[in-house]
């Protein structure tokens, strides 16, 4: 094998590894958070596309016709990961998206709660609500749904 | 005086910042949000645009808004936004209703709205009033013309809208609106129309405007490719009115005028990759403008217009507090006469560069703390097509320098 061939081979391996990293990275990040809903929500899983639509205010109803309410954790690294992995936005882009809706009269800002326990309690007490918490922090008062 | 008031309001709003949160100002279930935005603008002395006295350097450059909204029952909302702005000869901080409507979202794919509703023309028209929601101070003017803000910014009527999943095709969001555009005779749009119907012999001032039933449609497609959204929007309207013309000797003449069959189409594409956002839009306008001067020693005229324009923009957020953006933008009075030669030959403009405008913009945006934004922006311009007020646009190559501070809550 000539030097040239080795260089090409190394480059291919490098690009392959980078591609693999890009593919598995979102899956790895998804393991750090859980999506929770109130127990009245009649789903066990939700597609990434639907989850994105919910957190952008586009999908507004569950299958049982109950309206969806979104609650978000305040200023958390975890939510940043969720936004980048699922919604495809940075926290600032997410804020701007909702401010766009607010300043055109289309929606209210999602409720923002800093404390995880309070966020879980809020979801548990409000039918139709969806939120994001660190993995393992959901407890039994809410339902954890998987991302298809 | 007005500039002083603006600065005081800006300071007051800034002091409010530690006490308020983006979602915290709520009274009896009514959410209240707003923004206060004050700027300074300086352009080349002879070319006063987009603020009518920018050639001298002007603080007549502000936007204030406050909105109130309430969810009455799940899915049913009502709200309104009051807006005041100053751009020198127009706006003048007069409070207007920016939007006010009731909104019932029946299901994901169908909702209805009635009232005064923001017109979704292009990627950014609905949110263009709020400076904090974008990188640039001035969006590309062909698509987001400052002299259209009191006309095609919001429609009074009804609309249906919704969001439809397309399976492997991504998701589509749509809006269809039917209504009229109430346009004030003393406003920015009227000044623009006055320039359109003036002739080499007679300078006209619009005195009354009425619009026919109009339609706006907007489709946003988000394909399964991460970060991509594409939009297609259309506006279909006609409007007419009266005007007073004056010749060089000071004689006055009544006139009637019409913009018939105005069809505007906008195609937009935006790509977001992390902190980088690239966008491009193309717009084309077709309409016939006519004016009739029954008792004046000038010829009535009717002219088919086929303008267009496009831009490419890029923004990048370096840190939580610093973002930079740039765009290049071209617009033409007649897309079949990009050199302007035919319009010069017909006497419609004096110079070829009066029939087009090319704009290179560079912006820095600073977010020192949440809810507070400072921007600084420069434009290098070539051509004067968009300068609506006919007085004194004498320079082919010119500049705009603008800076703006905004507080939102």
Question: If you had to describe this structure to a student in words, what would you say it looks like?
Answer:
The complex is a heterodimer of chains A (148) and B (409). With 148 residues, chain A is of the alpha/beta class. Chain A has helices spanning 3-30, 48-55, 77-87, 91-102, 116-125; strands spanning 33-37, 45-46, 69-73, 111-113, 129-134, 143-147. Chain B has 409 residues and is mostly beta strands. Chain B has a single domain (2-408), classed as Porin. Chain B is 7% helix and 54% strand. The A-B interface holds A 49-50, 53, 58-61, 65-67, 84, 88-90, 92-93, 95-96, 99-100, 102-112 and B 21-23, 31, 33, 35, 65, 67, 69, 71, 74-75, 77, 79-81, 99-101, 103, 105, 107-108, 117-118, 126-127, 129-130, 132-133, 163, 165, 170-171, 173, 224, 226-227, 272, 274-275, 317, 320, 408.
Topology:
The complex is a heterodimer of chains A (148) and B (409).
Chain A: H1 3-30, E1 33-37, E2 45-46, H2 48-55, E3 69-73, H3 77-87, H4 91-102, E4 111-113, H5 116-125, E5 129-134, E6 143-147
Parallel strand pairs in A: 2-6, 3-4, 3-5
Antiparallel strand pairs in A: 1-5, 1-6
Helix pairs in contact in A: 1-3
Chain B: H1 2-16, E1 26-27, E2 30-43, E3 62-73, E4 76-86, E5 96-107, E6 110-118, E7 154-165, E8 171-180, H2 188-197, E9 202-211, E10 214-222, E11 228-247, E12 252-273, E13 276-292, E14 301-317, E15 322-332, H3 341-345, E16 356-366, E17 372-382, E18 397-408
Antiparallel strand pairs in B: 1-2, 2-3, 2-18, 3-4, 4-5, 5-6, 6-7, 7-8, 8-10, 9-11, 10-11, 11-12, 12-13, 13-14, 14-15, 15-16, 16-17, 17-18
A few lines on this structure:
The complex is a heterodimer of chains A (148) and B (409). Chain A is an alpha/beta fold and 148 residues long.
What labels describe this entry?
heterodimer, A: 148 residues, alpha/beta, D-Maltodextrin-Binding Protein, domain 2, six-stranded mixed sheet, 5 helices, B: mainly beta, Porin, 3 helices, 7% helix, globular, Porin_dom_sf (chain B), signal (chain B), PBP domain-containing protein (chain A)
């Amino acid at each position: 094998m000539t030097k040239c061939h080795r260089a090409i081979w190394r480059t291919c391996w490098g690009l392959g590894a980078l591609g693999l990293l890009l593919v598995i990275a979102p899956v790895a990040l998804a393991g750090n958070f859980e999506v929770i809903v109130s127990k009245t929500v009649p789903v066990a899983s939700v597609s990434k596309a639907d989850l994105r639509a919910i957190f952008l205010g586009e999908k507004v109803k569950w299958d049982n016709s109950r309206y969806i309410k979104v609650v978000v954790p305040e200023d958390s690294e975890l939510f940043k990961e969720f936004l980048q992995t699922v919604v495809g936005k940075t926290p600032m882009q997410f804020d701007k998206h909702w401010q766009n809706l607010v300043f055109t009269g289309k929606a209210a800002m999602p409720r923002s709660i800093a404390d995880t326990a309070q966020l879980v309690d809020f979801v548990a007490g409000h039918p139709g609500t969806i939120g994001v918490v660190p993995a393992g922090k959901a407890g039994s008062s809410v339902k954890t749904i998987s991302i298809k | 005086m007005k500039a002083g008031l603006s600065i005081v309001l800006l300071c007051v709003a800034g002091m409010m910042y530690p006490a308020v949160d983006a979602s915290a100002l709520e009274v009896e279930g009514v959410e209240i949000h707003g923004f206060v935005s004050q700027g300074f603008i300086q352009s080349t002395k002879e070319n006063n645009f987009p603020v009518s006295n920018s050639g001298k350097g002007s603080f007549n450059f502000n936007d204030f808004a406050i909105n109130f909204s309430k969810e009455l029952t799940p899915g049913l909302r009502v709200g309104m936004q009051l807006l005041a702005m100053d751009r020198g000869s127009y706006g003048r901080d007069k409070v207007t209703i920016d939007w006010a409507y009731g909104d019932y979202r029946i299901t994901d794919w169908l909702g209805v709205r009635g009232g005064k509703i923001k017109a979704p023309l292009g990627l950014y028209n609905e949110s263009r009033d709020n400076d904090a929601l974008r990188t640039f101070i001035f969006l590309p003017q062909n698509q987001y013309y400052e002299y259209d803000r009191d006309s095609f910014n919001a429609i009074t009527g009804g609309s249906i809208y919704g969001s439809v999943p397309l399976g492997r095709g991504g998701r589509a969001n749509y809006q269809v609106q039917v209504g009229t555009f109430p346009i004030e005779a003393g406003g920015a749009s009227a000044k623009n129309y006055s320039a359109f119907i003036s002739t080499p012999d007679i300078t006209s001032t619009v005195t009354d405007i009425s619009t026919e039933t109009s339609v706006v449609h907007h489709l946003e497609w988000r394909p399964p490719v991460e970060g991509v959204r594409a939009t297609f929007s259309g506006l279909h309207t006609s409007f007419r009115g009266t005007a007073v013309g004056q010749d060089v000797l000071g004689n006055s003449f009544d006139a009637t005028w019409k913009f018939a069959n105005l069809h505007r189409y906008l195609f937009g594409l935006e790509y977001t990759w992390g902190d980088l956002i690239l966008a491009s839009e193309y717009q084309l306008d077709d309409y016939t403008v006519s004016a009739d001067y029954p008792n004046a020693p000038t010829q009535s005229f009717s002219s088919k217009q086929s303008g267009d324009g496009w831009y490419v923009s890029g923004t990048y957020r370096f840190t939580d507090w610093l973002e930079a953006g740039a765009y290049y933008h071209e617009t033409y009075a007649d897309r079949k006469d990009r050199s302007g030669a035919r319009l010069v030959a017909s006497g419609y403009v004096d110079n070829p560069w009066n029939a087009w405008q090319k704009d290179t913009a560079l912006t820095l945006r600073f977010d020192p703390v949440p809810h507070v934004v400072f921007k600084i922006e420069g434009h290098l311009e070539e051509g004067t097509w968009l300068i609506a007020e006919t007085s004194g646009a004498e320079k082919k190559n010119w500049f705009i320098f603008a800076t703006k501070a905004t507080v939102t809550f």
